[in-house]
Amino acid sequence: MLGRLLAGALAAAFTAAWALGPTAAQPSAGTPWASRCGADMVDIGGQFCIDRFETSLVDRASGRRLSPYYHPSPALAERDRRQWERLAKDSGPMPARAVPLPELPAWQLEPGVVPMAQSEGGRVPNAYLDLGVARLACESAGKKLCKKRQWLMACRSAQATRHPYGETFDPARCNLAAPIHPAVVLHGKQNLSGRDPRLNLVEHAGRALLRPTGTLLGCASPWEGDAVWDMEGNLDEWIDDPAGTFVGGFYARDTHWGCDARVEIHSADYYDYSLGARCCRE
After folding, report:
1. What is the pLDDT of residues 48-106, one digit of tens each?
2. Which CATH number characterizes residue 58's domain?
3. Which of 38, 41, 202, 259 is placed for a possible disulfide with 182 were both Cys, Cβ 3.0 to 4.6 Å?
4. What is the DSSP-derived secondary structure letter of residue 129?
5. Any alpha helices (H) in the chain, and if so which ranges?
6. Count of domains in the chain?
7. Containing domain of residue 77, as a range?
């Protein structure tokens, strides 16, 4: 059963990462807020714009989509792939050891790849981001990594609530507190390594634990007829704090803190499967 679960996760999540297009949450370009902020961002009270969806990455020059299962740096992606080609065969339950790593495109290992952030519905968001890469990806797109006050204001919606959808926690709204932990499925324990490229491929009940952007329609922060998606759950998101802070919670963390959820214990060079980003623009 574990083998079927993991093999199914590999196929399903890989297909979602590369094949899904924009969801129904994508706005039309003719609306007033789209003209002010662009179709990929949301106007937050006329003060700034924020990406509607969690970051997915492309190469700035070619537009080719970077794998969401590896760090965007060619050196770190290659290192992690080589490490887990070895470790995956010697750790965790026996069925999990046979699960292959997701593809790392050869072009992504070439020098000169510069990650650029995109905000699109229906994409598996890029995890494995450190703070420097998150900043670079936003700047490559002509944006900035969100400041704490910006991120919190956008998350709390125009009604300034604790959660994107209201004051009272609703476990069915956002992608939090998964019933299984991907590290336990693959490694037999949670603390082996968060850089295994297979972690975000693990499924439960026929669906990948990490969801494509904008697919949980109840997990929206409403703003004047528009909305920002997945600010609670799915992936943690870096904010512009040199000390290293990420916010929002990710799919396997059991937290009821809503928009106030944050992690402040890691350095700026930290990255793992739970950690992505989102961009803002003044």
Report:
1. 999 999 999 999 999 999 999 999 999 999 999 999 999 999 889 999 998 899 999 99
2. 3.90.1580
3. 202
4. -
5. 2-19, 32-37, 74-87, 94-97, 131-140, 148-155, 182-187
6. 1
7. 2-281
